[in-house]
Every structure is written in C-alpha cells, then in structure tokens.
Amino acid sequence: MPNHCKAVPVIDVGALAALDSTGYDQLCCDLGHAYSTIGFGYIRNHGISNELIAGMIDATKTFHALPIEVKMKIELNLNHRGFIPMNSATDVRSETEVAQRPNQSESFIMMREADPQDPDVLAGVFLAGSNQWPADMPGFFERAMKYHHVLSRLASQLLQALCRAIGADFLELKVHFDCPTTFLRLLHYPERQPDTPLDYYGSAPHVDFGCITLLTQDQCGLQAQGPAGDWLHVPPVSNTFVMNVGTMLSRWSNGVLRSTAHRVINEFGRSRFSVAFFYDPHMNTEIAPLKSCVSKDHPLCFEPVVYRDFVRDQLQATYIHHQLHDGQDT
C-alpha cells in the first residue's frame, strides 16, 4: 500500500539563474541529495507563471472533452505524434511489474516541431517531423508551443544544476541538447470503478526512459516507489512541478542519479488530468557513463546505448501503433 507518512522533498530552484552564487551551490546540493536517493521531488520558484500552467491543464480537459471520432482523426502516427486512445499502450518492458493489461489512459502527444526542410527531417532522424493538431480548438497550438518552449528552457537549467550536483562537466552533455528530443503529453485518466481488477492501472509501474520529466497534475493518483520498495503518494502541491529523472540520465551518471519507478491509480471518484513534459538528448546521441562518474569505488555500471535504438525498442514494445509497423523507420 502507498505510504502516507514519508514525504517527497520540495526543492526551491529560485537560484537556477545565479550560477556562481551560494544559493546555486545549495540548490545543487539539494538536487543531488534528492535525485540520488528517492529520485523524485517537487520544484518550486521555477519562474513559470501559474496562469500558463493552469491554462495547459484547461487545454488538456478541453481536448479530452472532444468527441472520440474527432480525436481519432489525429490518431498517433509513426512519428509518435497525435492522439493515443485508451487500451493502446501496455508497459510490458517494466522491470518493476510487467503489465498484463493496457494502461487506462488516453493522451495527446506532441514533440519538437520540425518542418520538411528541418535538418533532422532531411537526415531521416528517428521520429523527426511535424505535429498533428486538433481542429476547432482556437489557441491550442499557441498555448502548447509556448508551454513546450518555457519548459525546455527550465529543463535545460535543471540539467546543468544536476551535472554540478554530481561533479560532472555540463559541457560534456550540452552538445547533445542543442537540438533536444522533447515530448509534451496531455493525459486523461478516467475514474477507476470499484470492481476494476487490481492490475488495471491508469499507468502501470514504470520508469521514464529519458532524462528529465516535469509534471503538473490536477489531483492525486501518482505514486513513486521509495528506496525500500514501498509506494509513496505524490499529490499535487500548489505552484510546483513534480520532477523525476529518467533512465538515460541515470546511465550518464553511472547510476548516481536514480530513475524511480512510478505508477498512477485513479481512485478518487473523478477524471484525473495531467501534463507531462519529457526533456531528452538528440536521438542520435550515444549514452555512456561520464568519466567523472566512474571510479575505483564506483566502477562502470552500464554499456553505451544509442538513444534512438532505446526509444525505438520501448515504443515498439509498448504501443500498438508502433507494433503494427515493427521494423520500419520513419
């Protein structure tokens, strides 16, 4: 059962822009402790307006209130953009609990906008392309793009601080984020009915496969696995984002930063909405533990992996839409 006593830390990141200050050093210390132990935290004083955040939740509710036939007109494509309907994703690769049933959620997902002349599109980079947008939702495109832009900037600052926290040189990673891989996902979790089987999750236990995840949510349901294996509630906290580290950043840090399993169980009597932003390296990046994170006392834990290969494997294992085209590049 989830633990109501242990608290996920709240970290003040107001010093993010002051790289040479005492406050920045303390921030890096706080981030290093939180993400090498529990791997989850709330960040506050992040500089993003409450109006923008609340507006994105409202846009999520508006999108999911559209008729299903309208949403299906932009059903998920091979570039992993568009509407992901209910019962089409199952976390079969989870090392925490292999899912037997599909996630009980639906979502809209966008990535970095890339027109036909974009260098990545011309080079055939995995998932590079343009987004799909719903019709008859005035202002949705502008709001989503603005949110995507400001969270990209915040995530870049947080990544730099995490590098300092573990004694790594941010310049070793910076080149891989000059054109990052980003995902913005607008999620709806229907109310869980009393007779729903226990292994039907809103989102089954899993770890994120990228670097940094920033989440806003309108109600409870999110749970993170504590170091002892117990489940901790991660409810909404006003004016904060929930932040966690993904597998790629954990590998880069040679396991110093913890990629933590989490799940969603929506049993609170109404629909749950959340907006998740994922900040990852360029698809062609090879991820291997940073030299500064490998020592005699902490030997090499991971072999190199190319991010696009890892993502392709995860998508084909999880999503029906990608399984139908197994082995095809985009």
Q: Can you describe this structure?
A:
With 330 residues, this protein is α+β, with helices and mostly antiparallel strands. The chain has helices spanning 22-37, 50-64, 68-71, 119-122, 140-165, 171-174, 247-252, 307-318, 320-323; strands spanning 2-3, 10-12, 40-44, 82-84, 106-111, 181-189, 203-206, 212-217, 222-225, 231-233, 240-245, 262-264, 272-280, 286-287, 305-306. The strands form three sheets. It has an eight-stranded mixed β-sheet. A five-stranded mixed β-sheet has the order 1-10-9-12-7, with no helix packed on it. A hairpin with a 5-residue loop joins strand 9 and strand 10 (231-233). 42% of the residues are buried. It starts with a strand and ends in a 7-residue tail after the last helix. Helices cover 28% and strands 20% of the residues. The protein is globular.
Compile the SSE list and pairings.
Layout: E1 2-3, E2 10-12, H1 22-37, E3 40-44, H2 50-64, H3 68-71, E4 82-84, E5 106-111, H4 119-122, H5 140-165, H6 171-174, E6 181-189, E7 203-206, E8 212-217, E9 222-225, E10 231-233, E11 240-245, H7 247-252, E12 262-264, E13 272-280, E14 286-287, E15 305-306, H8 307-318, H9 320-323
Parallel strand pairs: 1-10, 2-3
Antiparallel strand pairs: 3-11, 4-5, 5-6, 6-13, 7-12, 8-11, 8-13, 9-10, 9-12, 14-15
Helix pairs in contact: 1-5, 2-5
